[in-house]
Write a structure and sequence with these properties.
The chain has 16 helices and 12 strands. It is an alpha/beta fold. The longest helix is centred in the C-terminal third of the chain and has 17 residues.
């Protein structure tokens, strides 16, 4: 099967969809599919592409314009390379394959769905409500011409249904992680604690882009209640972003200077050590307008390191966190319950260890990229045979 994989987000750029695309393409190619990636160009892309076992076609366009760029000559490319399937990482690029199929290309069109992109409406702020409505209607018509969707969570599937996609054209295939990259390593965790001078303090850990929707401020608001029970508690915040200064100001206002540590950007080869240093991983994302957590791969990464996790009920996070088994779910602004759950896990070592082990077992059995890619491969083959 010859597959074109079209994605606006691909390494060396960083992010969740970039990881999703790279992990799946690598495995689908290893399973026998002949995969060609179409993606925007980025600094360092040429060096990366030379190291890959599959072909990557790069385009010198901003990410949002990839689909428009492919409109020109794409049908000829599909026919010349005997492409059977075009898989889109985001719906915005489907315009290229839909047009080619309408003009006679013999292809099946598949599309992933993550969440945030399904809220996209560049005309929503226009003075004309009619323009916004026309955009939504046009998107709905595009969706109807996609042969099958692969949302990463049940929440994302519900967004597709709300947008008019029939349930029989939807197969939920969740995200995964790499348990060979993220794994229990007590030695690495202790070494990092020693290096940073944290000693035996109880550590709550988050890593994300620092933006308001990630709920870092909610965790800061919960910290005074945590400190009442665990006076040595330390909240380690990994990552950078536009909300960083506001969060640092909030730390000062709450008098938490001795209980919060900002790491800045964490190098890839240090990610596993940071997870292993923690006692509990927390990220209570909230939904603000179009910003929502479609899944939450970081919960799987923490679980893969045998760490218990706490997430929010927002978006697709309930698919990533098995409530009461691999961690807890709380309201995205419920500081009282959040502090109680953090204290519970830091006080009950048996519960914490049990949740962490169940989390890794779940990653090993269901939520790893090998399993995810195999499910996608199998379903795609079934659809091709229908």
């Amino acid at each position: 099967m010859n597959v074109d994989f079209i994605t606006q987000d691909f390494p060396p750029a960083l992010g969740g969809i970039q990881t999703y695309s790279a992990e799946l393409v690598t495995r689908l190619n290893q399973m026998g599919m002949s995969v060609t990636v179409h993606a925007p160009n980025h600094e360092g892309a040429q060096t990366l592409d030379q190291s890959l076992d599959y072909k990557v076609c790069r385009y010198n366009v901003p990410n949002p314009y990839l689909g428009a760029r492919l409109l020109f000559g794409y049908k000829s490319h599909l026919e010349k390379n005997h492409v059977d399937v075009v898989f889109h990482a985001q719906w915005q690029t489907t315009i290229a394959s839909i047009r080619a199929k309408r003009n006679g290309a013999k292809i099946r069109i598949f599309c992933a769905a993550h969440a945030r992109e399904l809220f996209l409406n560049p005309l929503s702020l226009s003075k004309s409500g009619q323009l916004s409505a026309r955009f939504v209607e046009r998107r709905k018509r595009l969706f109807q011409q996609v042969d099958h969707f692969f949302p990463v969570s049940n929440y994302t599937a519900s967004l597709l249904i709300d947008a008019g996609v029939k349930t029989e054209k939807i197969t939920v295939i969740p995200n995964g992680t790499n348990p060979q990259r993220f794994f229990p390593s007590d030695g690495d965790g202790k070494e990092l604690r020693k290096k940073l001078g944290f000693g035996a303090r109880k550590i709550i850990y988050s890593i994300s882009r620092l933006v308001p929707t990630k709920g870092i401020d909610t965790i800061l608001d919960a910290m005074p209640l945590v400190i009442k029970k665990h006076s040595d508690a330390l909240y380690v915040i990994g990552g950078t972003g536009p909300d960083e200064q506001r969060l640092k100001t909030k730390v000062m206002a709450l008098g938490l200077s001795n209980h919060v540590f900002f790491t800045g950007r964490i190098a890839d080869d240090q990610l596993n050590a940071y997870y292993n240093m923690a006692d509990v991983f927390v990220m209570v994302s909230r939904q603000e307008k179009v910003n929502v957590e479609g899944f939450g791969i970081v919960f799987l990464e923490a679980n893969a390191c045998e760490k218990p996790v706490i997430g929010s009920y927002t978006g697709g996070i309930p698919d990533a966190v098995l409530e009461g088994e691999t961690g807890f779910l709380v309201g995205s602004d419920d500081t009282q319950t959040l502090s109680e759950r953090i204290n519970q896990l830091m006080s009950n070592e048996e519960l914490s260890l049990s949740m962490g082990k169940k989390g890794r077992d779940r990653v090993l059995s269901q939520f790893n990229w090998d399993t995810v890619a195999n499910r996608l491969y199998t379903r795609m083959k079934e659809l091709m045979e229908e």
